Amino acid sequence: MYTIVYHGKKFNVLKKPIMLPSGKKVVKEIVEYPGAAAILPLVSENTILLLKQYRVALDSWIIEIPAGTLKPNETPLECAMRELEEETGFKAKEWVKMLEIYTSPGYSNEILHIFLAKGLKRGVKKPEESEILENIYLTLNEALNMVERGEIRDAKTIIALLYYTHYFRRAYTVKGNEMC
Known about the structure:
Layout: E1 3-7, E2 12-19, E3 25-32, E4 36-41, E5 47-55, E6 60-64, E7 67-69, H1 76-88, E8 90-102, E9 111-122, E10 132-139, H2 140-148, H3 155-175
Parallel strand pairs: 4-9
Antiparallel strand pairs: 1-2, 2-3, 4-7, 5-6, 5-10, 8-9
Helix pairs in contact: 2-3
């Protein structure tokens, strides 16, 4: 049994009592989050589209892949498709789910679904009122060098870039995986 101590627009905070193996009872605080989707958009075989976005929680601009929170009854792919167009102004012809990750399992149940988007074509950019962002185009090598220099520090972006460049491209080609 748990208690909701905060009910927000995007997440809830719960207090959940648990029994440790030692028999001691403790109360854990958990962020309940509906999940999210993130997208690594390929402009060409070697060029990607990222966002330079102002993040209020950091009071700073960061470079990251497009992403957003799942809406009720929305699939991760539907969320990814919506977020790509809203944040970048592009739609994609081809979608491949690369992986799912737990973002912060020590205190949150959030699952982030990361997709690869290919065959980009212009759509309508319509970011949320509170989103301050701009498109930036980089080669994969430029983006990886920015990770190495600490210029890209966003975890989902680093995971997507490293997974795509070090595993996914090779595995996708060898296994002949199907598109979503």
